[in-house]
């Protein structure tokens, strides 16, 4: 079963991939508290989708997990799962443990 | 569905109509089809953004956007404000061209279009999609919502069954984005585009059918738009609510 640390590492790798395409003075901080989306974040919606795509692909290729991060389940939550790395990690953990 | 917020101005398009296959197709509109592409353009209004018809006076700002680094992977277009103004004025009836504005401030932040609208074959090509003010849309699902509003125009209002288009093969972010939102790759055109970067690029052919839109795209778009909703309680992880 995948762990929170492994999920966090996947998200960090996705952020690193985004940073590779950003200017040196416009890098996204890579930490559990990093704001992903919403007020105050550095990502636009194209970059959020890129991150989500990379996380879903990594979950599948590295752990054999088929996870959909952007569907009605995300919509139904009281809090958006994409606020921070932490909230996304916890959401993925919830989805994978419930699968 | 016609938007209840009536437009304050109608966009005046060039009266010249191309005698193209698409223009001819519009004269043979199915009587049961929804509003034709040549009808006056309405605004499309979402939660975070509004699409309003592009106007000649948008020439300066849209030209500036097309000359930014972000536009390097767009096809080469007008090089002066006058050329851009002439291009805007000459838009045919088979297109609907929009400026994306933030609802909170009215600031124009980008543009996108629905072109080659064909009500006989019920297809069209979304494109010319560019966020020209990236700083203004950080943390705002402007791009997703703008595309959602365009898809609603295409599939719900115009009753189209297929959207298609090409994206430069090097535009990895946009390709990833479009594929995640349901577009499927149908082929590749070698050295198809001469881009703003002065080079030829392959073009990846994509399509989205109406059933794919309803089965996949809509749910993902809704989730991504809702991604920007503020946290219900203040915490160390949440920023100030807008």
Summarize the SSE layout with pairings:
The complex is a heterodimer of chains A (99) and B (242).
Chain A: H1 4-19, H2 45-63, H3 72-76, H4 85-98
Chain B: H1 21-26, E1 44-45, E2 49-53, H2 59-66, H3 81-89, E3 96-102, E4 108-118, E5 123-131, H4 142-157, E6 162-168, H5 172-180, E7 184-194, E8 200-209, H6 210-226
Parallel strand pairs in B: 5-6
Antiparallel strand pairs in B: 1-2, 2-3, 3-4, 4-5, 6-8, 7-8
Helix pairs in contact in B: 2-3, 4-6
Please provide a written account of the structure.
The complex is a heterodimer of chains A (99) and B (242). Chain A has four helices and no strands. Helix content of chain A is 55%, strand content 0%. The radius of gyration of chain A is 13 Å and the shape is globular. By secondary structure, chain A is mainly alpha-helical. The longest helix of chain A has 19 residues. Chain B has six helices and eight strands. Chain B has an eight-stranded mixed β-sheet with strand order 1-2-3-4-5-6-8-7, with helices on both faces. In chain B, helix 2 crosses helix 3 and helix 4 packs antiparallel against helix 6. The N terminus and C terminus of chain B are likely disordered. Classes of the chains: A mainly alpha (99), B alpha+beta (242). Chains A and B meet through helix 2 and helix 3 of A and helix 4, helix 5 and helix 6 of B.
Q: What keywords describe this structure?
A:
heterodimer; A: 99 residues; mainly alpha; 4 helices; 55% helix; globular; B: 242 residues; alpha+beta; disordered N terminus; disordered C terminus
